Amino acid sequence: MGGGVFAEGTVTTLPKPSRSHAGAPGDADGRPPTSHERKSGRPWEASYLEGPAPWDIGRPQPAVVRVAAAGGFTGAVLDVGCGTGENTLHLATRGLTVLGVDVAPTALALARAKADARGVRAEFAPADALRLQRLRRTFQTVLDCGLFHTFDDEERGPYVSSLASVTEHGGTLHLLCFSDEGPETGPHPVSREELTAAFDPATGWEIASIEPERLRTRFHGEEGAPAWLATIKRR
């Protein structure tokens, strides 16, 4: 992918990443490192400083495109863990008001550069997925594409509560995560039972559906890795 973003035949030079966040997990604002960061010994920011991240395929996830085409995103939309913004930007091109949030400053800088290059109006902001209430906003539709499966058992409860704090009652969460069913699963695969337990009605959610899907990465080829696509309603 190099140093440019390609959009309708143009090439835009992206901002040079700062390496001030590449040292240790967590961030300068006091965010504690997630379980993924502790296990890897690297902050999320490092994945973007060292080149395209494994999950950064340079286009929106096909599953997100299909859900959007079917009218699954309505009202104000939040994309949690937006990375370099491909899903956010796709939804914005459909006329939706979308906010993409991430903890990695370089990812957000790349996302904003793409938006400018493509002439797409979308908002990007730093936010901790475990403390989304700090946004002081609510959304009718929320997207989690590849974030839930990075959290361990202790983090899932706070994450589910964090999502509930920004999702309007009657709103919808679309969640795409690695599945434990099938060959060549991705890292941190999740079972159907784990999803059901995390989004139990007692947590303020009701699962409408969990369907087998594929999650594209830079290392699983065009087929992608086994995944779940869950549609979850805020009670």
Structure summary:
The protein is α/β, with parallel strands linked by helices and 235 residues long. It is built from 7 helices and 9 strands. A 7-stranded mixed beta sheet has the order 5-4-3-6-7-9-8, sandwiched between helices. A two-stranded antiparallel ribbon has the order 1-2.
Q: How would you portray this structure in words?
A:
The protein contains 7 helices and 9 strands. The chain has helices spanning 35-40, 44-49, 62-69, 86-93, 105-118, 153-166, 192-198, and strands at 4-7, 10-13, 76-80, 97-102, 123-126, 139-145, 167-178, 205-215, 225-234. The longest helix is centred in the middle third of the chain and has 14 residues, at 105-118. Residues 1-26 have low confidence and may be disordered.
Extended strand count? 9
The H-and-E topology, N to C, reads as EEHHHEHEHEEHEHEE
Give Rg in angstroms.
17 Å
CATH homolog superfamily: Vaccinia Virus protein VP39
**Main β sheet profile:** 7 strands, mixed
Task: Please give the share of residues in helix.
Answer: 25-40%
Main structural class: alpha/beta
User: Span between N and C termini?
Assistant: 42 Å
State which percent range the strand residues make up.
Answer: 25-35%
Instruction: Give the uncertain stretches in residue-range form.
Output: 1-26
| Shape field | globular
Q: What is the architecture at the second tier of CATH?
A: 3-Layer(aba) Sandwich
Would you give the CATH topology? Answer: Rossmann fold
Count of individual domains: 1
What does the average pLDDT come to?
A: 89
Strand order of the largest sheet: 5-4-3-6-7-9-8
Tally of helical segments: 7
CATH top level is Alpha Beta
